Amino acid sequence: MDLLDDHIHAGVNYFATTQEIVREWQAMGEDTLEFEATKKDFKLAKEIQFNADRQKEWEVVCERTIRELKAAHDEAARDEIVRLKGEKTKESDEHEHMVVAYQKREAESELRIVALEKVVEEKTTQDKALEIIAEEISTDCKWLLAHGVPLLTRKGIDVDTLMKALEDEDAEASDASPSHQV
Question: I need a labelling partner for 13 at 20 to 30 A (CA). Which of 3, 30, 51, 72 fits?
Answer without folding.
Answer: 30
